[in-house]
Predict the structure.
Amino acid sequence: MVAIPTNVNGTAVELNVDGHEAAVDVIREQLGLTGTKLVCAGGVCGACTIQLDGEAVAGCLTPATAMRNAEVTTVEGLADGDDLHAVQRAFMAHDGLQCGYCTPGFVSAAAVFVDGWRAQQGDAEPTRHEIADALAGNLCRCGAYEGIYRAVAAACRGEHDDVGPSARVDAEDKVTGAAMYTADVFPENGLHAVIVRSPIAAADVGATPMDGAPWVVDMLGELRSVFYAGQPIAALAADSLAEARRLAAGFPIKITPKPFVTDPESAKADNAPVVHDSKEARKAAPNTAEGVAFPARWNGNVRGPVSTRFRGISANRRIDRARSNSDPGLAELTVGTGMQLHTSFEPHCTVADWSDPQKLVVWTSTQAVNHIHEELAEHYGLDATAIEIHADFVGGGFGAKIAVSPDMHAAIQLSKTARRPVRLVLDRREELTATGNRPGSSTEVSLLVGDDGGYEAMVMKGEAHAGAGINGAFGLLAALTYRRAPKLTQDRDILTNTPPGAPFRGPGGPTAAWALESAVDQAAHQTDRDPLELRKTLDRNQKRIALYDWALDLDLWKSRTGPGADHGRFRRGVGVAAANWIYNLDPSTEIEVAIESGRLVVTTASQDMGTGSKTVLAKAVAEVFEVEPADVVVRMGVADGVNPHGPVSGGSRTTPSIWSTTLDAAERLKQEVGGRPLTECDGTHVRAKRAKDDRRGVPMTLPTSLQVGRGFSGALHMSEVEVDTLTGKVRVLTVYGGIAVGRIHSPVTARNQCEGSIIQGIGLALYEQQVIDPHTGLTLSSNLEDYRIPQLGDTPEMHIHFHEEGWDHVPGGGVGLGEVATISPAASVGNAIFNATGWRPTHLPIRPDRVLEGLR
Amino acid sequence: MIHFPESYETIEVPAGAVVRSGGTDLQERLRSHNAAPTIVDLTGIAGFAGIDVNDERVRIGGGTTMATVARELRATHPALAIATGSLATPQVRATGTIAGNLTQHSRCWYYRHPDIDCFKSGGDSCPARTGRHLYGVAFDTSDCVHPHPSTIAMALRCYDVAIVLADGTTRTLGDVLGDGSDATRDHQLAADEVIAAIEVGPGWTGERGAYFRSISRFEAEWPLVECVVRARFDGDVVSDCRLAIGGVAPVPLEMEVAASTLTGGALTDERIADAAAASTEGASPLPETGYKVALIEATVRETLERLRNG
């Protein structure tokens, strides 16, 4: 330990640090300044950015000793008292954030840039390129880049030197670092837990030695075998994280390697090692999707097919005939997608406190406080009021944080044993290895369109590559898109000894769209039809047809030239793709609106993982009472057996569940108040339940209280790309996103989410891919340098168009958009590349090496 | 334990200790390996950071940040400055130093993985060679197949350079980098040998420089291929030229044939194409790096077009 004098946020302090410690850890743990976040731990993402003598530096790579005799400013010190920095105000006004986990780093770096810019350039506006260059050391996984551009530009123009509006109700907490995420909870007297993971892709595992550390819990259960590298075996806790990690590294557990297989082609061979080689193992295979797996036959590592048939025999017959007739209306492609990782910036983490045997308190980064509460109460046999789940702020989820995860149980059980609080936070390598993925795929698709452009037939044979997980099927989603016609889809899971998949925004959607929408584009090309006009004849969803008409009128589309018309080094092209999604809701949703201390308070046991649900609640109450959303106190993120049942943030079910319910509660409360001043109404409260839709959907409720309502939402994406045929680099220049989900209740946050969907779609299309070592099954792309997510500078110009008609049967007139907005961007990029070059990319991601190969 | 020597004379590196300058490579490795070795932190040494210019040479203190190099040598050593200003991120350039950049460890995803051994981490194989090496070398001259990570080392290939060690002795850049055959090490300095400064010859009068890295995204990504060139012109005619490429071999490569192809004529499309083609001579790509041969040609061409366009 060495004592270093320093000055943090204007206060002189003396820190005691070890030579190897990084600044970020000392700032968070010793000073308690948890605004600064640790995300990639490799200097890539900038979430830990602090200012050191006025320069933006990465707190994870800066030794703590570098703070010696320095002026350190963290996000908590950017404001001058209550007077926020102009950049903080700009991020609030322009909604330059979603989950907020990257925000402290972004505003800390942007403040350095904006102050420097204004000192040199006055109130001139920097170009987008200059902003991207200055902030190339910061990443946002939600993809709030458009708002970030606008915020930084406006701050440079001097527009935010005074107090201004905030687009979302929790933005101030996020730009100041006050927002407390689970990873920011460091309980007093807490233990640090880590997971012992298998470094071997397939192995028999001995009994967990319960004396291998002061506190140990087994995570493997009775089967005693692992089927992927990175699989949890046990968890242990110690007084410090370093000690826990040391114990985990030397944990005395017997692991006997078995043969394994890591790539799907080899896995299909007759003599391949079988991933799940017993009935019990197959039954326990991880489920990639939310909800129940369709039953299917197993044959070695092949599970399925699971089929969707609508006149399937006709579909096959028509396609066979078209093939033998060389019918130009028949488009046949073999396509593939890579495994995409969620990499939420707040990792999976849980802080469990069961030191009082009568009360279990769990902070956890989840998309489902209420669901988790119910599951854990049942699992541990607790009364609903004997367990609390807290997720006040959630640093992104994207689908990977819906279920009760093994690390949650580990922290809880360790706390139960130790009777001390236990903190378990995954590191980035774990997060990028073993917390789920959007499964990869390999698909053969045949689409036949008639002479009149009508939908004649479609056959899709899809393989899901969900590692050791099952139920990666996506064919049904393709079959549900467009008109009725003879259709046959067959899905197979190809099991490998690699990390299992998990739900990821629009599960299966982008995968199905990559096959189907490429085929539609190819059919349009072969029959010399406008791809939008062809979709108009294939489709019967009136909402989406309205989007086609909107798109046909765009100048970008009208100025489009034929495929491969460009012959220079840089070739531009425009492509479209459409999306279809089911309408989900949680019919059990309840909202309470109350008056406390003269203020309006809205409560539900749901959470805001960056989508803007808190803002939706506040806006609904504000609309009824004719006040500002900021005047409404929002209580989300706590499930304690008292707060009303709130929906999971997943499946685009949240807004259609909470908006109208909040309006109902607020209106009834307003009637009760009857015009009295709120200050005289303390204690008045109303609880409303989600009203039924006017038209019934699927009469069945899934385990997370999910119900499928009537009608399909739609989207259409049009992308303009520039392909550098020399270096193989693809840039997406412009994207139009048309979204048909009915009424938009919170336009700013909705737009932000649609823009983020495009950014994540560009990642899927061009950059992102989990890479597995064939010799060990270990994930090689387990850091944010080798797992490449889109940067600010990769952001196209984005234009979002909402078609707000067609959902009158839903209370509030609108449905959710988180999924439908994310399905078609990648396919639109692929179709744009075809339009630019005449070469059709078939495999994602479309890396430079693939472009060079394709154009050779 | 941590030591803060205040002068080069008082540097002592105990067995097992590591030397630290900016820390932007070391800190990541310490965390991912849960390591807490004794650290010899050089940042307290007087004169370790900073640039001295005289007529003969430019002396860049080993602890000079990359942001400083990029800013202060822009006029006299544009190729070095532009390349340095293009690497990593603003945050890393603000604290990472030139000595640290030269001596950083491999960025291979096998080497960086705590559960995998390779030649560079004490093992006896290169798992990337038979595994995944999409970002591997296109000049296969070592048992290790990952390219050298240092953009600055590549840029320094284009200059007359002396590496001054803490004990006052000097090494050539070649001494420090080695010849690219040693799979076990990223550089040839011993654990207790510390770079005090890098001395670079003066720029040419009227010298211009250009740099380009081929990557998939906007910035802040390790190069698939990168190229740097410095040149002086007599009218339109290239009178002197040096060119180097990186991201393709166990050490950055100076491309003397390409440079001589350019010297003595104008930067015509044809001469650029010839130089670009010459830069791929001797390439021996791996199964997954065949694309890099075409990309070397593309990257050299783009760099030279940037040089031509000023």
